[in-house]
Fold this sequence. Notes:
Elements: E1 4-10, H1 14-29, E2 32-34, E3 41-48, H2 53-64, H3 67-72, E4 77-82, H4 88-97, E5 103-105, H5 113-123, E6 127-129, E7 150-154, E8 156-157, H6 168-172, E9 176-177, H7 180-192, E10 197-201, H8 219-227, E11 234-238, H9 247-255, E12 262-264, H10 272-277, H11 284-297, E13 302-309, H12 316-329, E14 333-338, H13 356-376
Helix pairs in contact: 8-9, 9-11, 12-13
Bound molecules: S-adenosyl-L-homocysteine (SAH), iron/sulfur cluster and FE3-S4 cluster.
S-adenosyl-L-homocysteine is lined by residues 51-52, 165-166, 168, 203-204, 239, 241, 266, 268, 306, 308, 337, 339-340, 342.
Amino acid sequence: MENKYYQIxxxxxxxxxxxxxxxxxxxxxxxxxxxxxxxxxxxxVFNTCCIRQGAEDRAFGNIGALxxxxxxxxxxxxxxxxxxxxxxxxxxxIKSSYPFVDIVFGTHNLFMFKDLLIKRLNTNxxxxxxxxxxxxxxxxxxxxxxxxFNAYVNIIYGCNNFCSYCxxxxxxxxxxxxxxxxxxxxxxxxxxxxxxxxxxxxQNVNSYGNDIEDSNVNxxxxxxxxxxxxxxxxxxxxxxxxxxLSKEVIDTISENDKLSKEIHLPVQSGSxxxxxxxxxxxxxxxxxxxxxxxxxxxxxxxxxxDIIVGFPGETEEDFMETYNLIKTVEYDGIFAYMxxxxxxxxxxxxxxxxxxxxxxxxxxxxxxxxxxxxxxxGR
Length: 379
Ligand code: SAH
Ligand code: SF4
Ligand code: F3S
């Protein structure tokens, strides 16, 4: 067979990066090889993200830019999947405005990609497969991992938290934990294949096991079990939710050399009023208690966080509480975002949305503060 090539363009978080590795596995099973040149590709996949408007705009922009290529190469298959296509109105937009897209499938249909591609090749009709059923548990396919050093391992899919700004629970479904032994076996194999860093993935890793009856199946026991495996490796994990990161887990991290001392603990805001509106279900007092416990137990910790500025109703005083919290904690890294309204979320209908200029100003203040902290701490 003559060589056929594929390209996967991935947006969004580690979860999506990892899912692209699964898509790559499916394509390579079908005989396709990876290429970095669009012009050489027979299949181009856009694995999209919809966490903020900017992510969607970038994806639509880049999909649109393929129109010319498709005109030149009628056999080119263009597929769009991921979080963005789990939203019905976005699928309608692709149907009506991007007629050159061949396959559209949602986050719960990832494992069906092989069948969808074959269907498209055999029928010459556009293929749509978007399911609302999150119980279609993605099978662990033969993935093609991007990295030789770090390997991603899913431990829990979906999210039950419904933070009022966030689209993830709507596009990723409810929490489903993977089987404990399956995870341990996968990690063992990765260690045997010489991976030095294993990153456990979940929207809220601390919820691992909550949906499984056996009370021994929980995040703390998973960490302990993995840390006790033989070999030379580090276990990382993301993301932890401040309301669920327990002292036991912090103790486990502090006691095990194989558990990474990097903790990403998104605070989102320093104002209790805003945290309540965000439905984060912790107070700044609780958050600081956790941070202080971490610093006491793990003196060499590397702490990072996510911040959203300009949430509806955020006053200058609320913002300054966030600013001052950052000053107090002195994070090693900050991901600061301007609030972006997401259709269907609670925050969409809240009063007092802020103008872009205010969000811009606040996000810049945080970026400057971060620089100051890094300079001060010699990083
Ligand atoms: N499950 C993780 C990550 C979610 S997405 C967590 O709970 O932390 C990563 C980050 O994107 C979030 O932490 C938040 O800071 C940001 N984010 C999510 N929705 C957003 C929105 N509508 N506008 C701006 N930033 C958002
Ligand atoms: Fe979104 Fe909140 Fe779930 Fe994170 S915990 S994915 S921010 S709803
Ligand atoms: Fe984006 Fe989906 Fe991840 S919305 S941040 S790719 S879970």
